[in-house]
Amino acid sequence: MDLLIAATLNAGTVLALAALGLMINEKIGVINLGAEGMMLCAAIAGFATVVHTGSHSAGLLAGMAAGAVMAALFGWLVIYLHTNQYASGLALSIFGLGFSAYMGVDYVQSTLPASPRYAIALLADLPFVGPALFRQHPLVYLTMALAVFLLWFYGRTRTGLLLRSIGESPESAHALGYRVQAIRLLCVSIGGALCGLAGAYLSTVYSSLWAEGMVAGRGWIALALTAFATWRPLRILVGAYLFGGVTMLQFSMQAAGVQIPSQLLSMLPYLATIAVLVLISRNPAWIRANMPASLGKPFAPPR
């Protein structure tokens, strides 16, 4: 059980990072459907960086940079050129799938240097909870801290309230003198950096390998997770660990010899996503009450 909990936290971190990044985008009114492509490009960027430098930290930074650059390109298209956000996001996702496959051809058989072992002194030696909770990669704890920080940031700080107001009424924020487009581009880039960090974590820490299409729908699950959590950071964190737990459950069931076809077990995370979306869609008023009013709507400052 302790190994299952540890694996759940590890798997959920990928989803949590990506979903928190997408939440930052959507809080200011921009919806990015390109998370899958950004995560894939960041995954190969991070993996290749670790192969050539031997530094896992450099790999994570490279993934963040790749995600931020792709998100900035997407932001420039939808914020300044006013292209359709949904079509541009899908194009970004498709581009990322093909580009990462092309760039990753030479890295399929590559191996990474051994990752450092992490443990919190004293706590890691506690029975049961030690291996489960206190021997995780530092990014697991940083992701939890980020969720708490974003909860405080959006609810208690002037800047956070400003970003929320832009998501609700960019026209009003512009009338008060704020550069709405520049702020949106910055937030989109930050959100992309978090998606990139998720992709790099997936290839360099979680699986320590590169395979074509290895993100395997996690970008889409993260996108659904933001709506499932009604754009609230702590709910995103809980939802990410829920989906991570379902993902790990299939491996535990296979290891235990449960007589269920492996294809059906592989479907479990996606079936869970569909079930959640069906449940929340039964109450559209609840979603509308929490959704940023300008989500997906272009904004052009009046001249």
TrEMBL record:
Molecular function terms from GO: transmembrane transporter activity
Pfam families reported in the protein's UniProt record: BPD_transp_2
Membrane topology: Multi-pass membrane protein
Designated name of the protein: ABC transporter permease
Membrane-traversing stretches: 28-51, 58-80, 86-105, 139-155, 182-203, 209-229, 236-257, 263-281
Highest taxon above the source species: Bacteria
InterPro entries membership: ABC_transp_permease
GO cellular component: plasma membrane
Assigned keywords, A-Z: Cell membrane, Membrane, Transmembrane, Transmembrane helix
Region forming the signal peptide: none
Lineage of the species this protein comes from: Bacteria, Pseudomonadati, Pseudomonadota, Betaproteobacteria, Burkholderiales
Places the protein is found: Cell membrane
Naturally occurring in which organism (per UniProt): Lampropedia cohaerens
